[in-house]
Design a protein that fits this description.
- The chain has a single domain, classed as 3-Layer(aba) Sandwich (Rossmann fold).
- The protein is an alpha/beta fold.
- The protein has a 7-stranded parallel sheet, sandwiched between helices.
- The radius of gyration is 16 Å and the shape is globular.
- Helix 1 packs parallel to helix 2.
Length: about 210
Amino acid sequence: MTDRATGLGVSEDRPIKASGVSRVAVYCASSQSCDSAFHEAASKLGRVLAASGITIVYGGGAKGSMGALADGALSSGGRVHGVIPNFMEELEWAHRGLSELKLVDDMRARKQLMLEQSEAVVALPGGCGTLEELMEAITLKRLGIWSGPIVLVNTRGFFDPCLALLERCIAERFMAERHADMWSVVDRPEEVPETIARTPQWPAEARSFATL
């Protein structure tokens, strides 16, 4: 059903517009201690989305992959909208150069607003917060509450264990085989816009097969 191939090369010199998608939520981390390859991938994703005319909606942070993503997009003339809880802004974790920064009461409000404002989700490698956001998006898609494309950027094979666990969920019949079509996996940020564009519409009747 979904084109899950990972060989969709996209050049920044010839940007691909993700058909019908103008705003993408990006889930990523604030860690400054991880391998620099993750920050480089985040920066590249920012530049690629900016070149494709896509507005980024993200967690509003200035450090780690969050900061690299935002700086990459802004350096290429892109628009970046941050959503950050009040307590994080008080801790001075917020990026001060964004196109827009929205303050919300808590983490739940942040996740809800990011998804409400976006037509697709991209997950970069990250910690428990990033994984929680990703799993919530997958869950809401399974329930037919939100239906946009979900793309995992598998830098350095980071998501391999996560994907193996999801495959185990399907093998053990906690999820149906068709639920594997809810997400796509790419190796490089350059592949994201075309992957979003090629993702088929998730069925309106998704709720009817949410349970087995």
